[in-house]
TrEMBL record:
The keyword DNA-binding applies. Residues 77-129 form the Homeobox domain. It comes from Caenorhabditis remanei. This is Homeobox domain-containing protein. CDD domains: homeodomain. Keywords: DNA-binding, Homeobox, Nucleus. Coiled coil: none annotated. GO terms for cellular component: nucleus.
Length: 162
């Protein structure tokens, strides 16, 4: 079974569950991820009877509550298979056509907006407009290196956590 088929099955299961939910937006946000998928706005409007503005405000409120409580909001990341497919298509043609976007969407399970955003960023990286960020690796407070140092208890105050 391909990634795309599994994705469609999971998405169908999600919408069947939401049809019987007593609080659609709460369940959508908390059970099915914090990633706002613009393609789902119309379906959420149909299920809730609310406007897009109201839906966006409610989802933003849930996200702000998570931030306030210190909950880590995981950013979206592409799977290695998706990244390989995107890179392969980009190497063939950096300016992707709408037809190619549809084919790539079927192949990878990504939305059209995810594909166009990825291509746009890759073109900027290739042109030197945007420099790809590298994560700085800092030693953890309880790393062997810190514990064995003479100033172990004092280092906690000085360390900045990422």
């Amino acid at each position: 079974i391909s990634y795309f088929v599994l994705f469609i099955e999971a998405e169908n299961e999600m919408w069947e569950y939401l049809k019987t939910s007593t609080d659609v937006l709460h369940d959508y946000y908390h059970k099915f991820g914090v990633q706002w998928i613009h393609d789902n706005k119309n379906r959420l409007m149909n299920l809730t009877g609310n406007s897009i503005t109201h839906i966006e405000n409610v989802l933003r409120l849930y996200r702000n509550e998570d931030r306030a409580t210190g909950q880590i909001i995981k950013a979206f990341s592409y799977t290695p298979e998706q990244r390989d497919g995107l890179l392969e298509a980009f190497n063939l043609n950096p300016s992707i056509s709408p037809v190619e976007i549809g084919e790539l969407s079927d192949k990878t399970g990504l939305t059209r907006s995810q594909i166009t955003s990825w291509f746009s960023k890759q073109r900027k990286i290739q042109n030197g407009t945007v420099v790809k960020k590298k994560r700085r690796v800092r030693p953890a407070y309880f790393s062997i290196e810190n514990i064995l140092s003479d100033k172990f208890p004092e280092k906690k105050k000085k360390m900045k956590f990422i």
